[in-house]
Structure formats: structure tokens, C-alpha cells
Predict the structure.
Amino acid sequence: MTWLLAGPVVLPLIAAVVTRMLPRGSLVQRLFSLVAALGLLGLSAALLTTVWRNGILAGQMGDWPAPFGITLVADHLAAAMVAVTAVIGVATIVYSFADLAGKGLSDGFHTLLHVLLAGVCGAFLAGDIFNLYVWYEVMLISSFALLVLGDTRAQLDGAVRYAALNLVATTLLLSGIGLLYGLTGTLNMADLHLRVQEVEHQGLLTVVAVLFIAAFGIKSAVFPLFFWLPASYHTPKVSVSAIFSGLLTKVGVYSMMRVFTLIFTHDVGYTHEILLWTAGLTMVTGVLGAAAQNELRRILSFHIISQIGYMILGVALFTPLGLLGAVFYIIHHIIVKANLFFIAGAARRMGGSWDLQNLGSLYREAPLLAVLFFVPAFSLAGFPPLSGFWAKLFLIEASIESSNYAIAAVALAVGLLTAYSMTKIWVNGFWKARPPEAHRPSQLPPLRRRLLLGPVAGLAGLTIMIGLYVQPLYTLAERAAAELMEPTGYVEAVLGTGSAPEMANRLAGQEVRAQ
Amino acid sequence: MEPIIAVLVGFLIGCSTYLMLQRNLIRFVLGLALISHAANLLIFASGGLTRGLPAVIMAGETKPQLGVANALPQALILTAIVISFSVLTFALVLAFRAYQRLQTVDTDAMRAAEPPVPTAPAQPEGKVGLP
């Protein structure tokens, strides 16, 4: 079954190479890109079903035994994240057919996008922490190039800020990994789970944990480390913004979930308390930042930040229900957020502006878009029966259950302010009459219109489906949370249940290290 | 040997922090180069420093007689060097391109992606918020 684990990484990499060789910007190249993304979707569905049926799947690349070789692991969380990544990949590629029609733009896009997908999937499946770092870099370098695709002044400015802070974050991550290796002598995450308990100076471990909070915190844009996000996410093409908003920060959150349930659980009172404060402040600053904005993409960028707070809240509570909420939230959020960026792009095409002041009358001119906007927007704000309602419900219930009433109140208030922002977009962009001086763009050709609205409709359908038929995702999140809370299964899947040759190998390894 | 490396790492991080807090983009990139060196040395030192020991076990032995040098940190550093080199190259190209398009390397004057600073309406255009 190793191929099933390696597939989601290998397939996009192959696709990246092939799309580069096909005639640039041609129909063949775009269709191949789409087929490859559909292939990734199929593979990830197979992976998710296998994990659903058989439990955690672990594979050793090159057949090196566990703590020494490169391990890929898919538990319920990782498999679900890979699947949702593939969904967003397919949606983005379809959307890009209409969005990146200009000459030169789609040249690099498909190649870079597949590299990005490989990096994201690799980060989700990585079973050792150094490989996690390597996949971060793969993701980062392709995102740099995607960000400046189009070469406008704003993009270059945004890319400078994005690159600067993210490169500092990866250096922090690398330093953290180095120190953790120095303390434990291993990089394999399952092995780390066992070894950190034997570390003599638990205080040093806390220092390293804080280093990881800072590194993943910059990546996932939490307070006060989020400044790169609103400075850059509104600059690139919409297809790029959408996939960034859906996936990149969530890899940071995923890593935090992984590391702060599997490795750094020795001093929950300290590390998770930091996370709890971070979560609350992130929610509040993000939503207030969004309330002050008047540009569609900037509003949405600030909302990414406030939503990240909810996911971190789930990790910080460190209870089964809290983690369940976080897992549910992250999957719901990826779908909804990417969709909102798609809608912003479509509104720009049909309404002629990014600015709420110059938009209007979209309700009359594009009724389908208006209806489709409603679904993700009010799912984001947490209206029943959409997916966001359940996600917020679980998290608030978990906060109350663990007597964190203040954070529950904050989460509720932030939901209200999110509804305010979404209503602002609705009233100004869709409902009010277009100001007479604003320029109205010419009608889009029907095919491009369909290509823009197709992915939007698909993702909105998914949001409604999760909302109305919540049981499957709930069970998935429940299992994922159970695995995160009780990592014994994860450790056994990776290191084996202690068969004789394995143990001998490990003992030999320990002796070597001891000297 | 470790204390010397530790001091060196601290010194490098201090220098790079100083450089990265400057407004000049080129200095920031230089700071980035220094901090990645610091991270590499940190891994090197935390993996344990040994002198004159082999990294392999001799033929016919199942256990090292004298102890071994830990080869793993060096493998990690090698990977990290390659990555940081390519990322640094990209950062330089990005800085240069930003200079070409925005006509400045002053990060305060680069505000193409964000609205101009609202507190400085009296300033002439172009050099927003700078003395």
C-alpha cells in the first residue's frame, strides 16, 4: 500500500514536469493539468477510504525501518486534508481556465500549482519532522513564484513581505528541529512522541515548543505574526489567491495540531495556554481588521486570520471535542474560504471592481452569483444549517465544557462580527444600485461565465451537503480527534508493535546514539 | 568546542536580526543569509561534535569500537544548505525585480500593495512617511 501513500506526492510532481513540457498555454496543457488533478482526487479518495476502513496507514520509503528511514503516515486527519486539497486543486484549475485567459499567465501557473499541491500533500503525509520542513520549502518556493505571476507592482510589493516573513519562519522551524534533534536524537514524529518523555530537562523542551509555536504561528498567520497575510494575499490572480487562502495557512494549523498533540504535551498548562490566548487575540484582531476594509479581497484576507483563531482554539483546548471541532473547522474552512475568493473574482469580472464602493447591482445582473455568494458567506459566519454552524457549535461547546467561558464568548462575538462583514459585502456589492460613475464591464461570454461559476457552485454544494448531512464528516473528525488525543495507535502504526527484529534494530540504534 | 559554536550562533543571529530590522531590502536579504547559516551551525552543534571518529562501522564488526561520528546532522545541514541557497537566490531576484519595478529598496516606501499611510497626507507623493 506504499504507493497509495506516496501517490499524492508523486503524481503532482510528475504532472508539474509534464505540464512544463507540453506546449505552453495550450489547451492540451490545461486539460492535462485538469486530468492530473482529477487523478490526485481519485488517489486521495482511495487513501481516505483505506484509512477509513483499516485505520492508520504508514509506509517506509525505501524499506528502511521506521525511526531511520523516511516515513509517510496517513491517519484520518492527514487523509482528509489530502482529499480536501485535491478538491481545491481541481476547483482552482477549472476556475483558472476562465481566470487566467490572458497570454503568458497560464504558462507557469499549472506547473507551479502542481508543485504547490505536491508540497501541501507532502506536508500532510510527512511522518518525520525534517521532511515536514522540506515540504514546507517546496510549498514556499512554488508559492513565491505563483504570487508574482503577472509581475505587477502590487504583486512584487506583496511578495517581498510574504517572502521575508515566511523565510524567517522556516529558519525558526529549522532551528527548532535542530534543537529538538539535539534533545531527543530522533526526527521521526512517532519516535519523538516516545523520546520526549525521556528528556531530562523538560524546561528546554518547552523552549523548543515555543520556537515551534512561533514558526508555525507565522505560517498560519496568528496574532501577532500575521502581518504578511493581508499585505500579500489580495495581490495575485484570483486563482492563486483562492488556493493560497484555502491551503497554505492551513498547513501551518495542521502542523500545529500534529506537533502539539504528538510531541509537545509535557507542559500543556504552559504551551496550550499560550495557544489559547493566541487563538482569542487572532479571532478578534482578524475580524476587526476585516471590518475596517472596503476591498473585497482584503476583507476576505483578514477573515482568514480570524478563522485561523478558531482552529487554534480547538488545539489549545486539547480535549477530544475541541480537536474534533478544530478538524471539522479546518475542512469546512478550506472549502468555504477558497470559494469566497472565487466569488470575489467572479464579482470583479461581472461588476468591474474590487472596491465595495464601486460595486453594486450584482443581485440583478448576476442572480446566480448572488445566490452562490450566500452559501459560503453565511457558512463562514456560522449560520445554520451550513457547515460553519456545526464547526462553531462544536468549538464553543468544547470551550464551555472545559470551563473556558471567556473564549466561548469571544468566539460567539467574532461570529457576529463575521456576519457583519458578510452583510456589508452583500449590501454594497450585490444589493445597492451601482453608483452611476462606476464603470460596468461588458458581459462575459457564456463559456467563461460557466467556467467561473462551475467551481463556485460545486464548492457551495459541498458546503450545503456538509451542513445538511453532517454525520460522515462528524464521524471522520471524531476519529481524527481520537487519534490525535491518543497517539498510541499512530506510534504503533509507524514503529510496529514491537516485533523482534524491529526492536533489535532500535536497540542497536540507541546504543550507537548513546556513544 | 560546543560553547564556541554556541557563541558563534548567537553572534550570527544577533547580526542577522540587526540587518533584518533595517529598512533596506538588500540588508534584509543579507540578514536572511546569515540567519540560515546560524540555523545550520545550530543543527551541527546540537547533533554533538566529535573529532577524528569514523561515521561508519568497520567491516566485520557489529558495533563501533571507539564510538562514531554522527552523520545525520551533516545530512540535514546539507539539505538545508541546498534549500536555503535556492531560496536566497530567489529572494535576491525578487529584491532586484522589486527595485526595478518600484524604484526603491526602502521597504517603508514600498506601498504598492497597500493604501498609503493615512497619517501623512501633507507629504509629497512617492516618499510616504519618510523623513
Summary: The longest helix of chain A spans residues 153-184. Strands of chain A lie at 57-61, 70-74. Chain A touches chain B at residues 130, 134, 137, 140-141, 144-145, 148, 151-161, 163-164, 167-168, 170-171, 174-175, 177-179, 181-183, 187, 231-232, 234-235, 508, 511-513, 515 (CB under 8 Å).
